[in-house]
Amino acid sequence: MARKYFGTDGIRGTANNGSMTPEIVLNAAMATAQILRKGNHRHKVVIGKDTRLSGYMIEPSLVSGFISMGMDVVLLGPIPTPAVAMLTRSLRADLGVMISASHNRYQDNGIKLFGADGYKLSDDIELEIEKLMDNPDLIENRAISEDLGRASRLEDESGRYIEHVKATFPKDLRLDGMKIVIDCANGAAYKAAPKVLWELGAEVIAIATEPNGTNINKDCGATATNAMCEAVVEYQADIGIALDGDADRIIMCDEKGQVIDGDQLIALIAKSWQEKGLLHDGVVVTTVMSNLGLERFLSDKGMQLKRMPVGDRYVVDHMRANNYNLGGEQSGHIVLGDYSTTGDGILAALQILAILKTTDKLASEALHVFKAVPQILKNIRFEHNIDIDTSEVNGYLLHIEKRLNGNGRILVRKSGTEPLIRVMAEGDDEKLIIEIVDEISAWLLELDKPQVETSTLPMAKFRHCEHSEAI
Description:
Blueprint: E1 6-7, E2 10-14, H1 22-36, E3 43-49, H2 55-68, E4 71-78, H3 81-90, E5 95-99, E6 108-115, H4 123-133, E7 151-153, H5 157-166, E8 179-183, H6 192-199, E9 203-207, H7 226-234, E10 239-243, E11 250-253, E12 259-260, H8 262-275, E13 283-287, H9 292-300, E14 304-308, H10 312-322, E15 326-328, E16 334-336, H11 345-359, H12 363-366, E17 375-382, H13 391-401, E18 408-414, E19 420-427, H14 430-447, E20 462-470
Parallel strand pairs: 3-4, 3-5, 4-7, 8-9, 8-10, 13-14
Antiparallel strand pairs: 1-2, 2-6, 5-6, 10-11, 11-12, 15-16, 17-19, 17-20, 18-19
């Protein structure tokens, strides 16, 4: 069933437009409340947010929707996404909501929904919510006046999360003697992340910790790592950590300012856990975007890589179904199933820092775990919908992929959170994969043109390729 509101990570869009208007958010809250209210107890929902200006608009809409359905609301204020997941379970709430568009620009916003167990809601439940959101009978199920919910604010939400995260760090270790740059992306972890590192003994240089509503992820954070890298070199730090806007992903750099992506971090944790007998079944769960070099590294070490569709929720679903405890994405979502129900950038950073302390190696010696296979990604921004899952497109891609002779991969997919088509190729021959990505991108750009005058169906109008980068 096609999705109208939900993408791969909740509902997301431009604030005050499309699917991110107060009216739609209100309906989403009401529909979610109706579906998840079970039993005769007082029902509770916790709501956190990042630092976007539009959070002031979306939060009241959610509160009104839940209260109108008889649910009590606990407001957490600016706090990381994984903290919302943790507090949903800790406070025995029926639902957790995070208001965030993660790594997106400040103009965007979104809502992520967590069940009582702290895990993101399933596709099936999201589709139920979608159906009910557009049902005119939704308002018939509102609570009567005496059964309306109440709103309150949790006073020590950040402190609870900080202590939870610190408890995952080995008790016999400290970060004394380490100088760490932490880039908080002017986002949800601008208070919590520096505190965690400082309380564990590190010398902390915190940057991007002055959110103003519009500077979240702007030239900082996990998607713009230059600020972190430059600060590490300038302050002669041992390592750099960059979070995204809601702190559920992490990118790092070594003492030389060289960027370390999620695949390398996952490889290091997997190797450490495997050696200690902590990695369940020797399996790591990632997505189709993870580098072929990671797969080869794990295989050489007697471990196995399992790939899921893009989106940390699909990684987590597979981990839960098979009792695996390590997974994540190249983009920096790292899920440590023994400690958390979702990606957690701060928690993952502590695992990496613990490994560095026990090995007594420089970051440049420890964090470059495997040789990455050349991988090229090109993003094409589009204005209207286009179907890339057709026999014409699939046949063309199969034909192109033969040129890799089994020594690489091609992937073309739509982003679940932005109006982008992502074209990726990887293989041992870098020159060849660059040619292939450019060729596929050009073919997609031309795909619309011959049909504009002859077809009555609306076709996508592609703009320029937003960016191209080697990963």
